[in-house]
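User: Fold this one for me? It's 4-coumarate--CoA ligase.
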Amino acid sequence: MTESRNLTIDPRSGFCRSTSIFYSKRKPIPLPPNQSLDVTTFISSQAHRGKIAFIDAATGRHLTFSELWRAVDSVATYLSDMGIRKGHVVLLLSPNSIFFPVVCLSVMSLGAIITTTNPLNTPSEIKKQIADSKPVLAFTISQLVPKIAGSNLPIVLLDGQVINNSLRESRIVSTLDQMMKKEPSQSRFRERVDQDDTATLLYSSGTTGASKGVVTSHRSLIAMVQTVLKRFPQDDQNTFICTVPMFHIYGLAAFATGLLTAGSTIVVLSKFEIHDMFSAIEKYRATFLPLVPPILVAMINGADQIQRKYDLTSLSNILSGGAPLSKEVIEGFLEKYPSVTILQGYGLTESTAVGASTDTLEESRKYGTAGLLSPSMEAKIVEPDTGKALGVNQTGELWLRGPTIMKGYFSNADATASTLDSEGWLKTGDVCYIDEDGFIFIVDRLKELIKYKGYQVPPAELEALLHTHPEITDAAVIPFPDKEAGQYPMAYIVRKPGSNLSGNELMDFVARQVAPYKRIRKVAFVDSIPKNPSGKILRKDLIKLATSQESKL
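Assistant: Here's what I get for 4-coumarate--CoA ligase.
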């Protein structure tokens, strides 16, 4: 780190020639010196000037800060009495809810590990995660119990409703409501939890494709919380709308942990519906709206109608993540919503949602940028083929190092070794350059993920599924650009001789087996899939083919 060396760092770009490292231009974040500290204790020990922590947008039910911390203590006591211990994994399968953070904070306070999953995932997708992470307990809602029916996991119901006889089974051991009524015990069994211990196990497609468990420590979460605090100083007047999914690092970072520390109020929508979001902004006088670029574009396109129907005058900041915004989008938005500031962020599950950000409108007007490096973050730009570190305005793979970087992939030494080097550098899989002012620009992705409405879709997973179809010889899946979704999955298919398989039949075949956001939405039949000599699909060739054919239509 910079403090321990006498380095010559260019104050404008943050680049040091002797180390080939870019250092953050933002003020470093302090980490607590106490090693025996869990993220829940750290958050609860902050001064909370705010009164209301969470509001359910649909029902108006809310949790004050004092009710929240009482609930966390009660649930932790109940879990401890059940025998949940440090290192145990607990599964949380739920849509957004004001109780989502209660579960996360309770589990982590014990030194147990929370693993979340997408409620849209199919039973087979969830089964894979359960087989990999080996949870000892599951929290879910009645409606989603069938998705974990084959797991034999003990279940705690978040909604407390036993809706039919099939749910009156021995596997339902309690409800969250019962747990929250328990008297917190100061004498409950407590194990020493260190900052280095694992807190969360979130599943990410990483830089390759198959979903892997990202092992994140309490220290990384504490560092993330400190980073969030730096961006949003304590202000009990701020109200955030939570539409981004809490099971994802973006939602978990911002809402289950980070923004609590600022004393803000968080209005929770159980699922994203654009008109519900606008109604909630109006009703609760929201000031901050985190979203992904396709929603921002929809707000531009429908601005006149939206502003006639809803009062959005309380809104002061939009927080956009998922992809950098173009000049047209930024200026188009500011023209329609002149009193709103656009802030952007770049991060990965593997970096606990931290990496780079624009913290002012002036920074966001560096059009196309992902922002300046986050506090205490270091970066390298590396030539992928040679491993050579590059300088200012040179394009290569972005590597990141800092306190929020993951410990590794769960039970996957090979994937960890290919993504994290021995010096702690995370290879992001994003092709970038850093300009003379220290701003990061993402040029392309080495990793082959498709970004559909902010969700990550690994092509390799869909290709493996397509190869199971009896009438398919070969398949490739690419991102197809789309104004509303950002990108969607398109499949190139080689049919077996004599097959009359149609595009619709193929899309139905995939749709039956994957979450809605992973569905194939366009199909083209070809004689062969272009590949390099080692057999790797030449996706760029297929993307060029798809977009050039579209432009001719």
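One thing worth pointing out: The two ends are 54 Å apart (CA to CA).
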